[in-house]
Amino acid sequence: MSSRTPSTDLQSSSAADRSSSSPSAPNGKATPAPSKVTQPDESVELKNMASESDDVKAPLPVEEDIMQLARLGEVAAVQKLFESKKFNAKYKDEEGITPLHWAAINNQYAMCKFLLDSGADVNAKGGESVATPAMWAAQRCHYYIVKLLLQYGADPLLTDVQGYNILHLATIDGNAFLLVLLLHQEIPVDVTDPQGHTGLMWAAYKGFPVCVDLFLRWGANVNAVDEGGLTPLHWALVKGSQTCVQKIIEYGADKFAKTRDGKTPTMVAGEMNTMRVWYRALNECGYDASGNPKILPLGLTSFVRTKSMVSKFFFLWPFIMIPVAIWILSNMVIYAAVPIMLVAVFSLQWVAQQVANWGPSEYRILQRTPYLAGVFAGTLFWVGVRYVLKVLPTTYASHPILNVLFAVFFGLTTYFYILSMIEDPGYVPKLGSRNQQRAVINELFDLWKFDDENFCVYCMIRKPLRSKHCRRCGRCVAKHDHHCPWIDNCVGANNLRHFVLYIISLEIGIILFIQLTFSYIEILPQPTEPQCNILNDVLCSFVLRDTFTIVLDIWITLQLIWVTMLCAVQLVQISRNQTTYENMRGHSIDHAHPSSQAITSAFAAGTTSLDAAGLSASGHGPNPALAPGQHHRRRRHGCFQQWKRLLGLDTFFATAQSGFGESSGASRPKNPFSRGIITNCRDFWCDPAPYFGRREPGSAMVGGEIVNYNRMYEVPLRMHSGGRAGSGAVYTSLAGEDPEQAV
Known about the structure:
Elements: H1 8-12, H2 15-19, H3 66-72, H4 75-83, H5 99-105, H6 109-117, H7 133-139, H8 143-151, H9 166-173, H10 176-183, H11 199-206, H12 209-217, H13 232-239, H14 242-250, H15 265-271, H16 275-284, H17 301-304, H18 307-331, H19 334-358, H20 371-395, H21 400-422, H22 434-446, E1 455-456, E2 461-462, E3 468-470, E4 475-477, E5 482-484, E6 489-491, H23 496-523, H24 537-543, H25 547-576, H26 580-585, E7 589-590, H27 594-604, H28 639-646, H29 649-663, H30 677-685, E8 699-702, E9 705-708, E10 730-731
Antiparallel strand pairs: 1-2, 3-4, 5-6, 7-10, 8-9
């Protein structure tokens, strides 16, 4: 018995689970399958199919062994056996296992279809697990096979010997795509196993956040109880996945629910050594350690828990921080000004962090709030104030052209900044009903494209080419470039040009303001007796004329560094018709012939899961006696890495590196959307969409033709390799670690 068990009382709630064996091994036995079976890319063999009695039968030749032929997918050989009347599609061995079972578990799509067309019993149960072919396929995450069996009448509510139906088995394996398929088959979301465990309980116990989120969004009962009185929250605390615990609390779970033995979630967390997870989840959701809502003095509780109010606070707070810091530096002795300024800035930021700690959970990290957008907006505001009150009255007569130019670019920067920040970046429209979602899923199955590259589990939509789901926005964005914290918005098909115009105007505006302020300071009278601690008399005389403006110049000059790099990166990407995300992750093109794509998809059909741990072969029920496994942790990045991403240094260096790679002849995957530098630039800048206004959602120009990224699922024919319509060059969406999640 593990040392992590909560108590005998809590264990008794799942005694039936612990006494039962794991879900049947792929060979239909209740004993563990050989290690080879656990490899997803290898077929399941019949090594354990021999009788355990002393009478050992001589093995049949392969060409006469229908089980082996079904496992190998030899349709022609099986057809000969049927024609010779030696076997038929409904053949069963002594354990009730059919050829369809073996074809299903080995992902032999063509064989399954042939057997079904030949009259195989789609709901036949076999093996000691007494499971159907669909259950066998589900345990291996072969959801293309499951879909085929469902089309031929497989009953998703049938159960195996342990009382698990196909929804339970899919949840145990953590395959979100299989869950999506099954939930769209009208399976009750809260269907229980013999011990009263719902799919949500299984997902919470196994620690699969994506599956938990999917069940909750589908309407699963967050306060359902099993026969021991345990709720999904109890089971989530057994595993100790903070994401699962937090998500269940957010959906209204009873934080004081008691089991039949009087165990509250807090008591379960204490016995399972997951108290830290429990307290952090409560804190993230706005509750104290006792599970009661946090109460702030002066009636501030409703303020900090309202996302719109907190968002405005983070955006406006830098408007105070920036002038305070500049005023301290410009009005105190340098030796005292620097430490006092640092103390003041860190104190103000501490206040902001406290608001973040009390605010909505998605605002726990300042970089993920409108705070950085407020830093830029505050800088822009105070530059404008200083210009109108000080610089313009002094220089309008001596430098009229410079003033006009600065006023124009200041206005352009403000306009395009606001437009980039408030504009829809290109959200892919969601579907209006589950019937529409089901139709899209069926279409993707027909195209062999039901996978994470073509379907978004969160938005339940088909993903257009070059789109990406932004977790901060909670939407899929067409032609997703990146999520920019400086505008607190995504940059995508609808606002990419406005964003580029914003940073170009900003670059020019900063240069003009610096030049204008230097002319302004030269006009000001020199101080009579300049005294500085660390500067010579000439610099001292210059700085003391208007120290506030000089410090403001230094501040915006620092911003000029990253703005310049950002401009360079965006202009290079425009010339390549490339997005920042594609630049950082690379392109991938599948040149496979369409006839071979189905075969490739069939082999890959059972490997897609949103959780690496989701391919577990274990079938133990929610059992607190089992020590929770190692939790999957997202790789942490240091402060330097975070700021490098925020300032765009990583993208700049990646762009420079790829440029050197091209100049040195290094091979790079071909970008299917690039039509050459001149055409790419013309497509971007000569797009008929208005510069001062919003474009039609998703529209853009590629190769001189108008396209819509909201509905682009295939590369336009003119961009196929060699310009041939049937060449089969297909853009494949990018996979790998999401760069945005590192910040």
